[in-house]
TrEMBL record:
Highest taxon listed in the record's lineage: Bacteria
InterPro entries: DUF4159 (IPR025297)
Residues annotated as domain DUF4159: 21-211
Taxonomic classification: Bacteria, Pseudomonadati, Bacteroidota, Flavobacteriia, Flavobacteriales
Protein name per UniProt: DUF4159 domain-containing protein
A Pfam family hit: DUF4159
């Protein structure tokens, strides 16, 4: 019995020795594959500036796969519908409460769908705006005013929201800023250098926080 419990615990614990990241593939028709240059560029920046050793080619993992437990952080973005089945919701919840971390970047049209689906994952939790003194804004790079504004959607202020499970931040959601647009190749959105740098620094903070908390 003790050996069985050990194996179950091992299966449900995120591999803390892995320093790779993955893109989360979901169902529903939304383009989970959006912003293809974003994560490779963020990885290159993070490896250079905070001395991580992340694979240059991020893997893709499905929500219902046990492979998600191999990664300390998952990235999710896209435009349009997101759908989690009961099995997928349960698997993602187990991943997050076992030490995993999910970053969601608000591509236009994602908001109402991701809020709905995360209620399946954590029915009793609501997004809370993260204050500027939270550690995620104060890693290697400092953001005294909180999350930076990168990309315009509806002329609203940029906000960083979080889901907290037993006091631990398990989901970080950048809203009305679309950090991942700022990580993409410069020619895609023609963002000024200083805007892209802010986006990459904030993304680096997210990775650093996920790897150490």
């Amino acid at each position: 019995m003790k050996q069985l419990l050990f194996l179950i615990t091992l299966t449900l614990t995120v591999n803390s020795y892995c320093q790779d990241v993955a893109i989360l593939k979901y169902n529903g028709g939304g383009d989970w594959y959006a912003n293809p240059t974003a994560i490779p560029n963020l990885v290159a920046f993070t490896n250079q500036n905070i001395k991580t050793n992340i694979s240059k080619n991020p893997q893709t993992v499905a929500v219902n796969s046990n492979d998600i437990y191999n990664f300390p952080i998952l990235f999710l973005t896209g435009h349009g519908n997101v759908y989690f089945s009961d099995e997928e919701s349960s698997n993602l919840r187990n991943y997050l409460i076992s030490g995993g971390f999910l970053h969601i970047s608000d591509n236009y049209g994602l908001d109402k769908f991701i809020r709905r689906e995360l209620k399946k994952v954590f029915p009793s939790l609501d997004f809370k705006e993260i204050p500027s003194n939270h550690p995620i804004y104060n890693q290697t790079f400092k953001f005294p005013n909180g999350i930076p504004k990168i990309h315009e959607h509806d002329k609203k202020s940029a906000q960083g929201f979080g889901l907290f499970y037993e006091g631990r931040l398990v989901v970080f959601y950048d809203y009305e800023t679309d950090l991942s647009d700022g990580w993409e190749d410069e020619v895609i959105h023609n963002n000024p250098k200083e805007v892209r740098e802010k986006a990459l620094k904030m993304g680096s903070n997210i990775i650093e926080y996920a790897f150490t908390n």
